[in-house]
Amino acid sequence: MTQKDALRSGNEVSSMKAMVAGGMSGLVARFFTAPLDVLKISAQLKPRNKVISVHQSNTGMGISSFQISADDSFKGEKGKKNMTFLKYGRNGSDLISITKEIFRRDGIKGFFKGNVPGMSMYLIYGSVQFSTYSFLNRTIRLFKNDNLAPKYYESLNSLINGALAGISACIITYPLDVLKTRFVAIPSQNRESMIKEVVQIYKYENGIKGFYKGCGASVGTFGLSTALIFSIYETLTIFIEKNKEFSFAAPFVSGITGVLAKTLTFPLDTIRRRIQIMQAKNLEKITSESEVYKAYNMKKKFFSIGKQIVKTEGILALYQGLTVGLIKSAPTTAISLSVYQYIVNL
């Protein structure tokens, strides 16, 4: 018996059933991909370059602009007074080095850091995302079949509804995402309890706003990512249904969807990860490259921080961890969508 496509525009799925199925899909996906998530976030947070020396002028103190050349030599604004020059060198930010560092520092348990906020986040995120999508799918159809060709209007509805569902889930779960990032970054010997970390963020990082650093830009990223996931998934599914000669590709649709969505949005995700830790009061405990993050902290806007990352570390810094992100994304999306479809069709 062919399984019903529960995500198709206009299909009736109760909000409660979608919430339960979505929550379970999130938990199952997190269970299988937690170590990959830790590796991805660790790679995103690890600057490609580190401070290896500080050159201070005889006339005063200050911070210069800086950049990295191919041979790691320092290039600063020489000739100016009141300057302190930072020299940077390579930082062992490749995946193998990061894996060894996590294992040396925290052992096997290091690959499951942030699991409590992570599991909570996936549970709530999946519930909100799929229940919101189901509700919108039943009640809102912005594009009608008589206005557009049949193969397009369902994908457009999925795109809009998917974006709204992703934004809703992002806003609700963002504080858990911040906590997860902090716990992944902090070495075990420096880690506080989750309650103490919550209190510290609230007390020293501008109250509730401390839990939503980078959220504005993240809403756009999550919305875009979720919209791409639902629209690509539905577009490919509909294409295969209408072109039976491509039916062999049906089992790979979920995986392809995850890879495409992750690749297109990964640089934005890297910037928001950096934002989530760069204003932390205990920054020195979170990262040994605190000087790098302090330099980013002088940039207040999302894309200005992105430009600073490119300037000091190169364009590849925005894609650091993409490989493991793609490895994680394909099974995460495939498991999430497949478990949701299975439970809804029980």
UniProtKB/TrEMBL annotation:
GO cellular component annotations of the record: mitochondrial inner membrane
Signal peptide: none
Membrane-crossing residue ranges in chain numbering: 219-240, 246-268
InterPro entries with a match to the protein in the record: MCP, MCP_dom_sf, MCP_transmembrane
PROSITE patterns (alphabetical): SOLCAR
One GO process term, biological-process aspect: transmembrane transport
Annotated Pfam families: Mito_carr
UniProt keywords, alphabetically: Membrane, Mitochondrion, Mitochondrion inner membrane, Repeat, Transmembrane, Transmembrane helix, Transport
Ranges: Solcar repeats: 13-139, 153-239, 245-346
Topology with respect to the bilayer: Multi-pass membrane protein
Annotated localization: Mitochondrion inner membrane
Cross-referenced PANTHER family: SOLUTE CARRIER FAMILY 25 (PTHR24089)
Protein family (similarity comment): Belongs to the mitochondrial carrier (TC 2.A.29) family.
Protein name in the entry: Mitochondrial thiamine pyrophosphate carrier 1
Species of the source: Hanseniaspora opuntiae
